[in-house]
Amino acid sequence: MTVSAPSPQLAVVSLLPAQRRDRIVDFLRRHGAVTLQQLAQAMDASVSTLRRDLDVLEADGVLDRTHGGALLRQQHYSTFEPDPAAAAELSPREKRAIGYAAAAGLAPGQSVIFDSGSTVMEAARAALERRIELVAVTNDLAVAQLLGTSALIRVHVLGGMLRKGSNTLMGDEVLSGARQIRADVLLMGAHAVTDGVLSETDPEVAAVKRALMQAATTRRLLVDASKFRPRAFMTICALGEFGEVITDSGIPAPALENLVQAGIQVTQVSVA
């Protein structure tokens, strides 16, 4: 299934090759990993030009190439996590389109768990725009604040300890609260999807996501194509525990084939 959605325009600035390569390195320092498509969105350069830049930086010993992107060499990738502001910078059009598709699949009156993260935030924003009645549950303060602006959405916040540098509530209180509910739908993100396994950089984050999964009847995974990448530190679950994956048309062909062969419903959004 393919879904199209409106997308915001990004401002681009022409850069000299040396400036562009410096910016690529800065992206990697801030994000841990980056795809060619993400770089192309942020810079006034073609994918072929950026591919050559990555080749030069790899030859200089700065980074390691991956399928469709790169990792900064000698950075502890498996436990590296960008701050929320940095994460929101990457693939904004894809995340917006994925959120639009996720919200379109919600029915009035449903109870919905909104996980923490920039892609799920876009789903919350799109649900708000639909102006439908929902019962929302979340452990993300920013998501709760956004949904709370609607008179049609009743918001339940799973209490806990605020994770440093983020809007996410963590800890035993969140786990206990999740055990008390049974929601219709879970909209969840993940740091990485690798060979049919979801993973996160932090054990507490992974534990919360597992608890949210157990609290929902229907589970939908919201991940842009860049999330199909090397495995992070802590396993969440097998991908087969989700009934649907909503991603963008840039998903690597092998990853898409694995999803289809596993019998998982895949919704691909297209970005203009």
From TrEMBL:
Gene3D superfamilies named in the record: 3.40.50.1360, Winged helix-like DNA-binding domain superfamily/Winged helix DNA-binding domain
Protein name: HTH deoR-type domain-containing protein
Protein keywords: DNA-binding, Repressor, Transcription, Transcription regulation
Biological source species: Rhodoferax koreensis
SMART domains (alphabetical): DeoRC, HTH_DEOR
InterPro entries: Carb_Metab_HTH_regulators, DeoR-like_C, DeoR_HTH, NagB/RpiA_transferase-like, Tscrpt_reg_HTH_DeoR_CS, WH-like_DNA-bd_sf, WH_DNA-bd_sf
UniProt-listed SUPFAM superfamilies: NagB/RpiA/CoA transferase-like, Winged helix' DNA-binding domain
PROSITE patterns: HTH_DEOR_1, HTH_DEOR_2
HTH deoR-type domain ranges (all copies): 17-72
One GO MF term attached to the UniProt entry: DNA-binding transcription factor activity
Domain of life where this protein originates: Bacteria
